[in-house]
Predict the structure.
Amino acid sequence: MRCILCKLIASPSALGVPIENVLVIDGLRNEIPKYTSGIAPNDVVRVGALGLQSLSLTRDIPHGLRVAYTIAVSHVNYFLVAVICISVPTAFGMEWLNIEKVSA
């Protein structure tokens, strides 16, 4: 039990990364049709952020894709702020113990 707890505390990003990935991909699928036309959201997810220029033939499409990426990444920032808002009061509510005194 103690080892499992240590692993969960030592690697909190193991749970956060998949959640953030889902938030970005879902945000892209929702926002790309609003700001661009003729580009499938799955194609944008496939090429990634560095391949946006290869998808567009006109100048305004990369701008729309960048706006969609900005909104999708802002969803991740909202998630992180929510996690911080939950974890800080929880940490203040915990009992702070000195390990040397407890183990003696």
